[in-house]
Write a structure and sequence with these properties.
The protein is of the alpha+beta class. The chain is built from 5 helices and 5 strands. The strands form 2 sheets. A 3-stranded antiparallel sheet has the order 2-5-4. A two-stranded antiparallel ribbon has the order 1-3. The protein is globular, with a radius of gyration of 16 Å. The mean pLDDT is about 90.
């Protein structure tokens, strides 16, 4: 994995220039450099829980609040992630400055990190359950939440949520 240290917006702009030629790049910002690239369902204290069971319970309760209702499990899972449920989805954005905002909006001791990923595998077959996904891939949700769209949001789905993306 390549690394590049920047200390100004100009340096960030220059470092990101190599990603502008290919719109398949996704970005994620971490304010703490020790955080692993794992979805919330793979982090403590959620890693010992059954994320599918928690999702099903959330889904049963959320039905009365959603109109129109999501059309498939992938959309349901995207909304659950968006509202803070610990899922096997990891948030990314096509907008490097959005990721940078998330990296620096909360101060932690040490350096913030901006991750760049080009995931060529895309889950488009949304008739299958996301809990049956066998490989790590990106998922681009339909317009299920306006904030996801405004942030250029998309996700990676992690079949084994506790395994960091760098090891998958």
């Amino acid at each position: 994995m390549d690394t590049c240290r920047v200390s100004s917006f100009q340096e960030l702009h220059e470092a990101l220039s190599k990603y502008r030629k290919d719109n398949r790049w996704m970005f994620r910002g971490h304010s703490n450099s020790e955080w692993l690239l794992v979805p919330t369902a793979g982090r403590e204290p959620f890693s010992d829980s059954d994320d599918e069971r928690m999702f099903r319970a959330w889904q049963r309760r959320s039905v009365e609040f959603l109109s129109p209702r999501p059309s498939n499990e992938w959309e349901w899972l995207s909304i659950a992630q968006h509202h803070g449920l610990a899922t096997r989805l990891l948030d990314w954005t096509y907008q490097p400055l959005v990721a940078t905002f998330f990296a620096v909006s909360t101060y932690h001791e040490g350096d913030a990190h901006l991750y760049c990923l080009r995931a060529d595998k895309v889950y488009e077959q949304t008739d299958a359950s996301p809990f049956k996904a066998k490989t790590l891939a990106k998922y681009k949700p339909h317009t299920v939440a306006s904030r996801i769209v405004r942030q250029g949001g998309l996700f990676t789905i992690h079949p084994e949520p506790s395994i960091p993306l760098t090891e998958a």
